[in-house]
Amino acid sequence: MIVYKAVRYKNFFATGNQFTEINLNQNKTTLIVGDNGAGKSTVLEAISYAMYGRPMRSVTKPLMINSINNKNMLVELEFSVGQKNYMIRRGMKPNVFEIFIDGNLINQDSASKDYQEVLETQILKRNHKSFCQIDVLSMANYTPFMKLTAAGRREVIEDLLDIEIFSLMNTLLKDKITTNKEDYADADYQIKLIDNNIVQHQQHIIEMNLNHQETIDAKLAQIAAYNTEVSRMDSRIQEVFNEIQTFTEQTKTSATVRKKLSSKISTRKTITDKTEYVKKDIAFYETNTSCPTCKQEIDESFKVGEINKKQELLEEAEKTVLKLESSILTLKEEMAAFEVLNEQISDLNKEASELTIKISTNQRFMSSIQAEIKSLEAKITEAHTDNIIFKDLTEQLTKANERKETLTKEREVLSMAGQLLKDGGIKSKIIKQYVPVMNQLINRYLAEMDFLVQFELDETFKETIKSRFRDEFSYDSFSQGEKLRIDIALLFAWRAIAKMKNSSATNLLFMDEILDSSLDAGGVDEFLKIIRKLADDTNVFIISHRGDQMVDKFEHTIKFQKVKNFSRIAA
Hints:
Rossmann fold, 15 strands, Helix Hairpins, 60% helix, alpha/beta, 14% strand, 571 residues
């Protein structure tokens, strides 16, 4: 059972920077009064915000901070569950969310959402919707149980009967079913994959058993043929190099011969040029009788003497040219022989180059064939390990089949668990046991409020309401006052069930403006009678505008007032 002890708050809605504190466990009945906007309902809003991070009203979080101070909003709620004392501190500007157990702060490593989940599932064991149906009846922002959807009604009852754990289990079960389905598909895929590997390996074994040695021998013969050809070409290259060396030796004197040839040709040209001058001189003496320069007569005997001298020189020159022509011809023949040798050397170099390329090509072919031989030899070696690999694949297949069989059994178990955890399973049986008790309690509280109808909920929480004359009605058929009586009866019934289960039971019961709305005077009196009959461990807080009419009917009264735009408790 949750026993709420105190709530204090500051800078929350209209409250100022000083804590407003309310003792929640001091009086059995407390009346909270005040003018509109004085802050009567802020007590309830603070409790809701402390526990669930949200107020009762539909307002955004920033609007909960006092608009004048606009900072340091803080709410603290003290309560106990069993022997443990708790305090929740929650606020904004700065953001605060702390949970203390017996004065010690709970680890805050997790995210705020996870921290809230710990609070609701492990400590409060109830959500905000259940809080609004069991601890609170507010006319402002309250959705009556009868206005909830079928899913909403079921959620409240499951929380009340502490069977929402089955819904959680069902959610977890769905995750497990999904995981099982994925694992099963994976196991099935692995089996097919291993089967395929075994077939391929068997084919591989057959290929390995072929006579690779014959192929290797044929390739070795190819290599031998290439080696023979390479040896022959190596020998020929050596011969070529020897010939080149011989021819090169023979051409060593070519430069000297070329120089002699050039010299003799030059000499011949020089002599030939001189003979032309001599011929011109002879022609001059033969055709001229006087000197054209000095105009003197040339002596005939002198002329004959000069012509004879020039003739002798010309004859001597012609003899020398003849000798030079003979030498030049001989030297040209020698140079022609050198040209032939050079052409032979060039042809031999070309042959040597071609042979070298062929040798390189043959060597690449041999390397490629050698690699093929190694590959074949490796396959022969692999054949010896095939049995080990095949055995390993067989073991993998056995394990995969065992895993699939285990997953199949697990799937059957999960399917059975799914049937049990569905709404028509275990939860339905538990609800079926409590439905008669719920109906009995509801009708008892309706009778105590002098509302004589027969109210029944079925296992889907759909109502059937009959009058004393057995006419059937629905919830919407009644007036606002009659609906409120039904709402109150349901609230008290849920609290009684919670106390039986000791799951969602609390000492706190808040009624916000219930007595100010649709209840007539008789309904109010009957309502107050029910409150007085509640157990001593229940603390009832009634928020009302009609405080002056009911002060004497409550053990304690708290009056709120607004002073300088700040809400506070009147002295």
